[in-house]
Design brief:
This protein is α+β, with helices and mostly antiparallel strands. Helix content is 53%, strand content 12%. The chain has a five-stranded antiparallel β-sheet with strand order 6-5-4-3-7. Strands 1-2 form a two-stranded antiparallel ribbon.
Length: 301
């Protein structure tokens, strides 16, 4: 049998194209990124609302109720009896408080004077249209002041002392360090000035890794190599917040046509998210325009 026939038989029939599967995957590639973004923001808001906004509202409600509290156990004097309303519990509350709560659309009727005043405070003083803007403004201001305080001086010392105590607790330190790596990557501005994205053969020849240029290297190494050097940060994947700092000859570094954000996306996705300018033409043409811009490159088969 000729060799060409053997090769043809070994290869077998070409795989059939699956347009339905491709269309579903492409649709998911378009829908999932904005959907997951909305889910993350909703999760963050529910977390803040449950553990920050709700306790603040409860505290403010108690303080306001205590400030405006006016409940009579016995009927008021005849000259002021029209200014009060008797409840089923036998308590007397101001007439205007009773009318505001009674006019609210809620079906359930408060049973005690405390409940009537709390509902009144919610309707008059703690309206959501007023509470949310004020809360967001105060929350941002508090975060700003905390950031300034813990960034330098005694605040940094206090925070270092707190983290030192956390590091001594066996179980808590593992969880805290993992959460801190994620929050530092998401929220902290990078203190290292990444000015170039390059590729370097690391950890051996023939294996290329993405790196960020952070400086011009150390003088002694420059003198020993007798040529220009570059300091590189080679990040790990999928958490590029950690990595290796190396010094490489400038002639051994390959500049890449991609931004720092695109390089971080590539690393976090473990090489799945490829910038559009770095995709091969046949792959770029097989992906819809809405999916090829920095999102997943789906298999065309």
């Amino acid at each position: 049998m000729p060799v060409s026939d053997q090769v043809t038989q070994s290869e077998g029939p070409a795989p059939r194209r699956r347009p339905f599967r491709r269309a579903v995957l492409h649709g998911l590639g378009v829908v999932l990124p904005p959907l997951l973004t909305i889910v993350v923001f909703l999760w963050a808001w529910n977390l803040i609302s449950a553990y920050v906004l709700a306790p603040v509202e409860n505290t403010a409600r108690r303080l306001i109720v205590a400030a405006i509290w006016d409940v009579r156990v016995k009927p008021p004097e005849a000259a002021r009896i029209k200014s009060y309303q008797e409840l089923r519990s036998g308590e007397w509350i101001p007439h205007h408080v009773h009318e505001v709560v009674k006019a609210s659309p809620k079906a359930d009727v408060p049973q005690t004077a405390q409940a009537w005043f709390e509902r009144y405070v919610d309707l008059v003083y703690l309206r959501r249209t007023t509470v949310l803007p004020v809360f967001l403004a105060v929350f941002v201001l508090v975060m700003y002041l905390l950031g300034k305080f813990f960034a330098a001086g005694i605040g940094r010392w206090i925070w270092s002392l707190f983290e030192g105590l956390i590091e001594r607790v066996p179980l808590v330190r593992n969880v805290y360090s993992s959460v801190k790596q994620v929050t530092d990557y998401v929220f902290d501005e990078r203190r290292i000035g990444f000015n170039r994205v390059v590729a370097v053969e690391y950890p051996r020849r023939g294996t290329w890794a993405i790196a960020f240029v952070t400086g011009e290297g150390i003088l002694d190494v420059y003198a020993a190599a007798n040529e220009p050097m570059l300091s590189l940060l080679i990040p790990t994947s999928p958490v590029p917040g950690t990595g290796f700092t190396v010094m490489v000859r400038k002639s051994e570094v390959l500049d890449l046509n991609m931004t720092v954000d695109q390089a971080l996306q590539y690393l976090v996705s473990c090489g799945v998210v490829v910038p559009p300018q770095q995709q091969r033409e046949e792959l770029a043409e097989s992906v819809p325009s809405g999916v090829a811009t920095g999102r997943h490159v789906w298999n065309a088969s």
